[in-house]
Amino acid sequence: MRAYTTLARPSLTHIPRLGSPSRSVIALKGHSARLYSAAAEATLQVEDRDRVRWITLNRPKSHNAIAVRDLDDLAHAVESASDDPAVRAIAVQGAGKSFCAGMNTRAFEGLDRAGARAVISKVGRAVGSLRTSPKPTAVLLHGYVLGAGFELALAADFRVALPGTKVGLPETKVGIPSVLDAALLRDHVGLSLAKEMLLIGDVYPIEHLGPHFVNAVGGKEENGLQAAAAALLAKVTDLSPVAMKSQKELNEMWMNTPLKEAIDISIDVFADVFVDPATHEAIEKYNKK
């Protein structure tokens, strides 16, 4: 029988109501900031620095629980990087003591079937944007990483975490199933543990998910998590964006296509990248090393 410790966690059913309904997003370029809302404090901050788009969930008082109105902003922050040649990678982090405690469950009160579909579709777009972005994506995990916050972690290409980070999918305790990118959990942790996490809804130390779930570990020093993420992403920002885009598209296709068909499609994708001059530049640069 597996031995593990179920850790205390903030109750998803008692996350405080979030603030003003006005949307609030700050876009940062270098050291300048532009406020796109009259709200006093941005609930989502976006900064482009060192060829990385840094997106910060900024509801620290509620462990960055996500309100429905935040979802389109998060999706747009990720998706708008797709066509920006200055951005080579995307990182999502949380302000305060946690990465993200999931959706604010007030959003689910009183929904009918159509309303539930509308809300979860918005969640799906926001979470899925990390998986389907042509740019490599990373999440910086600390504190609590629950529900939709954990799905962001499952969807991203890279996970950078502090030791002792607490993760889980407690939806069944709220009375709803885990959906969307929770489907990736089995590939990350194996079928047995995935079923346990999905059905019971407990919270686990991130180390319980195995040695390969996290790609890099942040140090204990101040900004150690950001430094570890920046070092990891620096390994991809110098690589060909054409190769990154093609490889991510192949990864997505491989997860959704039978093996023989996936191999045949990958041959065409390989040939297609040679149409772009950036491919030849990258090959020449590599061969000169």
UniProtKB/TrEMBL annotation:
Gene3D superfamilies: 2-enoyl-CoA Hydratase, Chain A, domain 1. It holds the Pfam family ECH_1. SUPFAM superfamilies: ClpP/crotonase (SSF52096). This is Enoyl-CoA hydratase. PANTHER family: ENOYL-COA HYDRATASE, MITOCHONDRIAL, ENOYL-COA HYDRATASE-RELATED. GO terms for biological process: fatty acid beta-oxidation. GO terms for molecular function: catalytic activity. It comes from the Eukaryota.
